[in-house]
Amino acid sequence: MKNVNQCSNDALEIRDGSPTGTLLTKVCGYAIPDPVFSHTNKVFIHIYSKTQPHLDRMRYDISYTSTDKGRGCGGTLYGTRGRVYSPMYPHPFRNETTCTWIIRVPVGHRTVLKIMAYDLEGPCDKTYLNIVTHSSTGKATSSTLCPSDDPDVFKSESYITLSYTSSIHNDGKGWELFYQAVPKDVALV
């Protein structure tokens, strides 16, 4: 993916709701971008090209998922790296719900998950983040993170499942995670 500043000739912009809505992302190049989450039930997609005015050779493959559980509540993420946020991050998500994400990386890679920010409040039986790391042999290891925990890094031989359960008592900002694919022949520390 090219840097946004290098998208001067050809790009795809996604705005929240309308042509004048908040710019959610601007992408160009060939790499798969991180997921985009809107704040409304509509997005506006603008494709522009200075090098191909008729856009006859530009191709995009876009998929979307809608949910009634709130912005960014679950899904399957594929790629070599990306970020995952709790719904409405960095604002409190006071909703009794469970959101589940599956993070998959290319074959021949491991998944490394680093917790960048973690701020949950409320009782652990009602507000928590469950992280399940899966091995290539099918073994799963589960870790439940309570609001008072100070999590760091999780590593998986295969894929990772995240389940976030929130309650109306959660006044924390939520969480932000970064995941990255690491070739299996590279030693993890």
3D architecture notes:
By secondary structure, the protein is an all-beta fold. Helix content is 0%, strand content 43%. The strands form 3 sheets. The chain has a 5-stranded mixed β-sheet, with no helix packed on it. It has a 4-stranded antiparallel β-sheet with strand order 5-12-7-10, with no helix packed on it. The model has no long low-confidence stretch (mean pLDDT 82).
Write a concise keyword list for the protein shown above.
43% strand, mainly beta, Jelly Rolls, 12 strands, five-stranded mixed β-sheet, four-stranded antiparallel β-sheet, 189 residues
Helices and strands: which structural class?
Answer: mainly beta
Radius of gyration (Å): 18 Å
The major β-sheet equals: 5 strands, mixed
Number of domains: 2
Strand order of the largest sheet: 4-6-11-8-9
Strand percent estimate: 35-45%
> What name goes with the CATH superfamily of the largest domain?
Spermadhesin, CUB domain
Q: What is the CATH class name of the largest domain?
A: Mainly Beta
The shape, in one word, is: globular
Protein name: CUB domain-containing protein
Keywords: Disulfide bond, Repeat
InterPro entries: CUB_dom (IPR000859), Sperma_CUB_dom_sf (IPR035914)
